[in-house]
Amino acid sequence: MASGLGNGDSNKGSMWELEQNLDQPMDEEAGRLRNMYREKKFSSILVLRLAFQSLGVVFGDLGTSPLYVFYNVFPHGIEDTEDVIGALSLIIYSLTLIPLLKYVFVVLRANDNGQGGTLALYSLLCRHAKINTIPNQHRTDEELTTYSRQTYDESSLAAKIKRWIEAHAYKKNALLILVLIGTCMAIGDGILTPAISDVVILVAVVILVGIFSMQHYGTDKVGWLFAPVVLLWFLLIGTVGAVNIWKYDSSVLKAYDPVHIYRYFRRGKQNSWISLGGILLSITGTEALFADLCHFPVPAIQIAFALIVFPCLLLAYTGQASYIMCNKDHVFDAFYRSIPGTAVVIVMLVTTLLMIPIMLLVWRSHWSLVCIFTGLSLLVELPYFSAVILKIDQGGWVPLVIAATFLLIMYVWHYGTVKRYEFEMHSKVSMAWILGLGPSLGLVRVPGIGFVYTELASGVPHIFSHFVTNLPAIHSVVVFVCVKYLPVYTVPDDERVLVKRIGPKNFHMFRCVARYGYKDLHKKDDDFEKMLIDSLCLFVRLESMMEGYSDSDEYSICGQKTEVKSIDLLVSDNGYTNTFSSNVDLSYSSHDSIVPAQSSPLRGSSLVRSSGQTSQTVGGELEFLNRCKDAGVVHILGNTIIRARRDSGIVKRIAIDYLYAFLRRICRENSVIFNVPHESLLNVGQIFYV
């Protein structure tokens, strides 16, 4: 692409080539569902097909719960058959309030462009309030097609809550810890699954091996494979339940009257309260409805649950209760023991708490609706939470310990990352110092391109001054590369890279910000280096085109502060470009641009450009970039090591000097993630103390 851009014979040929680059085909499987979410178009046949497929992916845990719920409710046997009615009533209304009303009809709507789970909720909040603890946002990030957000009236309740959350750092940290707790609890719950028997374990191992061997075919094929089996299972347990109701004791239908819940607790008191830990198993797997939303649209999951899963589960539990009413002693033989799954209810509580700011800030719901949703959710979840706490010593402590371990790891990693970013921000180099060095930067400029990796999305990193003062030469073209992760599920390829010039053109310094979402994957066959170079070449050409339409042909190096018009170009490896222009008040101490000046030049020095020189200059600069690329490319990574100060406490020293340092050693570096050749890699280290 670089050479093609530099060797265009005419404007018509160059524009034709640019249009061809804009029209690149997308990966069919990866982009199909995402495009449908953007356009909000789903045909009825497609929704029904996806609803069928979701049975094989989403509802497996909920569907197998009838195997062991009643045994865990009555582990010591049944003394009064009325207790069976009360337990059944609890199961019925737990299924109605939590999976059906809370998740299917409310929480599923809080998706991040089709993505579900705790991180998706946090991503929505980060876009609607400044709660990100790493302040590396830029105005151009909000222009992404996946960066949807709402605006508020300053006097609205949502605006007041937004200001309240943003006012103090401890509120942001509390929200972050809440999100980490929910994520870690989900991991802790997923690691351990109840063992029903040795035979089932063997069968499960075989099935898992089969799933992993075919996972490269995608969720679509896995769904088609398991959906008929799961559908048959639901129809079977529903049919058996209906037959049992007719055959044994149809009086169990009175359990649909919620008054039996009150009578159940009045009779059993503490024992009935403790039994909630077993009844909770009837709604395990509910969080999967939201977490697996990335594979299926909301209407598909709603249809599958409301029309198949929910009625079949009600029939299955009611039929089991009918059978137990006539065969109280068979409860030990009919169902299986399991470990009480404790982390599940904590994940549900976290989701409820995160839905409060979501409903207020994102949906702008009336406060009364928020209170109703929160009250109904907590009315069910808090009793379950108190009940499972009493059963921690029976096995529920295992997922809690696992979750606590992951929480410690995640928080220490986040703390260390924030401290590294703060160091970069406080020690960055002013543009006045860079400009004072002149075009040569005080060194010998040797042919080649140097990519300097930094955490900063603006400003010159401290590692560059360390590099300049300790080495005798620097590359002819210097590019500061920042890999930034945004609170969106994905960044489209055609909006991946933000390119900007630093200083005057004869300095040959640029900035490239590569932006990724939390669901973006770095593929081994991605040519990150080529993407950056192609982006630079396209930026140079488009910059020259923009200069031709500039209001003023006079350019100058500004003083300490000036009114500027900056041009940011979003460039991708397939040639698509978005342009953003805005009037902002900048200073060289924190921003980087050579800008059209509205004030007097610095010491009379100026750069006068005419539109007639544009076509001559762009070809020369593109040719210069191509020569530098052919001379060699070097990736310069700043290996910033943090250490705890000597006067730090023992806990901080262990966390920073040992745990965080260990995590840094085992974590993949950018050179590995982006497939940087080892022979093109240069590490520059520095140590700072926190």
Which key terms come to mind for this protein?
alpha/beta, eight-stranded mixed β-sheet, two-stranded antiparallel sheet, 27 helices, disordered N terminus, K_trans_N, membrane, transmembrane helix, ion transport
Q: Rounded to an integer, what's the Rg over CA atoms?
A: 30 Å
Strand order of the largest sheet: 7-6-3-4-2-1-9-10
**How can the largest sheet be summarized?**
8 strands, mixed
Amino-to-carboxy terminus distance: 45 Å
DSSP strand tally: 10
Q: How would the global form be characterised?
A: elongated
- The share of residues in extended strands comes to 5-15%
- Structural class assignment: alpha/beta
Helix content range: 40-55%
What is the number of helical segments per DSSP (H or I, 4+ residues)? 27
The average pLDDT is 76
* Poorly predicted ranges: 1-33, 333-340, 549-615
Describe the structure.
Residues 447-687 form the K+ potassium transporter C-terminal domain. Residues 1-33, 333-340 and 549-615 have low confidence and may be disordered. This protein has an 8-stranded mixed beta sheet with strand order 7-6-3-4-2-1-9-10, with helices on both faces. It has a two-stranded antiparallel sheet with strand order 5-8. Strand 6 (561-571) and strand 7 form a beta hairpin. It contains 27 helices and 10 strands. Among the domains are: 44-110 and 198-338, no CATH class; 343-424, no CATH class; 443-547 and 619-689, no CATH class. The protein has 690 residues and is of the alpha/beta class. Helix content is 53%, strand content 12%.
